[in-house]
Amino acid sequence: MANDTRVIAIDAMGGDLAPAAVCDSLSLLTDLKCHFLVFGDQKRLQDFRFDSRLSYEIRHTEIVVSPDMGVSELRSARKSSIGLALSAVQSGEAHAVVSSGNTGVYLALAKIMLKTIDGIDRPALATKIPGREGSTFCLDLGANAECTVKNLVDFAILGEALAHAALGKDDIKVALLNVGTEEMKGNVLVKETAKILKRILPNYYGFVEGNDICKGNVDVIVTDGFTGNVALKAIEGTAKFIVEEVKSAVKNSAVAIMGALMAKPALSKLKSRFDPRLHNGAIFAGLNGLVVKSHGNSDAIGFANAVRFTYDLLNSNMLERIRENALKSQQHYQQFYGEMMP
Amino acid sequence: MANDTRVIAIDAMGGDLAPAAVCDSLSLLTDLKCHFLVFGDQKRLQDFRFDSRLSYEIRHTEIVVSPDMGVSELRSARKSSIGLALSAVQSGEAHAVVSSGNTGVYLALAKIMLKTIDGIDRPALATKIPGREGSTFCLDLGANAECTVKNLVDFAILGEALAHAALGKDDIKVALLNVGTEEMKGNVLVKETAKILKRILPNYYGFVEGNDICKGNVDVIVTDGFTGNVALKAIEGTAKFIVEEVKSAVKNSAVAIMGALMAKPALSKLKSRFDPRLHNGAIFAGLNGLVVKSHGNSDAIGFANAVRFTYDLLNSNMLERIRENALKSQQHYQQFYGEMMP
User: Fold this and answer.
1) How confident is the model over A318-336, as pLDDT tens digits?
2) What is the pTM of this model?
3) What is the spatial distance between Cα B21 and Cα B295, in angstroms, rounded to a whole number?
4) What distance, in Å, lies between the first and last C-alpha atoms of chain B?
5) Contact B234 A239 (CB under 8 A)
6) Do B3 and B131 reside in the same domain of the chain?
7) What is the Cα–Cα distance from B260 to B89, expressed in whole angstroms?
8) A contact test, residue of B141, B242, B268, B275 with most A CBs within 10 A
9) Exposed, middle or buried, A108 (CB in 10 Å: 0-12/13-18/19+)?
10) Distance between CA B127 and CA B144 in Å, rounded?
11) What is the value of ipTM here, to two decimals?
12) Domain range for residue A42?
């Protein structure tokens, strides 16, 4: 293996369509300069043909984390395909890990095994949401139901580095989610966080509101995990609801069905733009290692896109950028709260 | 005026299209057994013809609250059309008030002048959100960026009474917005609130998530004003974004335009179902008096619907139900926290 080859640990057993979706996905990734460590049940994996151009090895485990396993059963999960894949990152053998498996167990194990980067108190779940003018990375989407000012400041650092790596540009606009854009609006948490972000982020944008998430006019939107989770699910629920209502309205009229068929080629372009498989891959940011969560019902195309996204991030200096900025931010933070003391 | 005639105070000068939209709206309401106190600038109101079947009187004031007036200027706002309309409710002359004006000033004045109902600590902004199986009343949508357990318990009482009055049924399902439906999910605020709601609401539904808002499978969703505001705006933003994207996708193809025209009659039924004018009217619930906020850019149809909604609520026992339940809830609340003390 060449020295610059990236090593990605793959949990072959996680998700509704595993192991088929995961195994099939790898054949779509032969163009990556990448070695795959594939964790799963040897007996079930041998049924699949891997492309001969692929650099990979299978690491056997019979233990699989079930979708309904609670975080109280973490001990047994360590020997599972998710746990061993994370171990490979922990030991330095792999640079990143991708799984479609049980989110709670995956994130809890990742946090315990990889630990947060120095200067970052809590990791956050981030994903890219497509919008009118572009995509926006939003975090935290539910890893932390309760957040402090320091947590939100950390999330801003994480989001900035993530967007910088993924979008390949320097002037990353980071915004804080609030109930209004004026300085006096909001709760203590966002008002205090805003004061610090103004100092530490050269491109701090200010407050944005819920309807700005789909505008895509900023690169990063930072919020606590409670609000972020509710907002993301509200967006998904609304999109699903509208599409269903339109379909059912059209279905009741023969002329409308004909019309819809005529509009279909134009709309299918739109549909493919919003295909969740193309946007697959949430990052559990802030850990010592790149941890990517693929959607639980990902098919081969979806999983392949999550791996491709992971590979692209590995080819950036994201973790180093987080390390540097987290330390700088911590100094600012201490200085700020030091100044405010009597 | 008959003894059972309802009196509604109308701010004729609030909103982008005032006073025309407000004055024109009244002619759409001649079927209501209602007397209107219309507050505004006599000189500007005399240009409009009011339907002769209408029972109304104009109360003159030249003072108008501008859209950008801050809540720091409340003193001068008291003599404005909004302030005087609220005074009429405060004095008992009117039973309810409707305005499309400056939300911040309106709500702040209403809170000061009408005060909260005994047992309710803070009022909340509530509105009806259309969904798949029905509509759901959501609150708080932004009146309180910071909430306590007691506040959320109060909002549940308010939402239950509001849905009971508006939907005319007894078994009102009240849910709490959270990041998951399991009991251990969420922050301390929702977990503690859930414990109390289980005791005081016979039809307490449990936790729902962001994607449940558009399902309409519960009657009331309770949340803090920060999360509620973000979620509502996220829903509005997503709906707007999808409609715009579909329009722009169709626009680029002649065949698709033709198809869209054919589907138009079927879709326009859907459009009218979602017409925001039909759902106009947010309630500032929990005050001694019925305070309704109409959307800032309401036209005559929108404003008329907000007044009609107000009239229907007046013909229910909503305020009495809130009073009764608030007192009962407070006893439970004290008992609960009493029991928990060592």
Assistant:
1) 999 999 988 888 887 787 7
2) 0.91
3) 12
4) 59
5) no
6) no
7) 49
8) B242
9) middle
10) 15
11) 0.90
12) 1-114
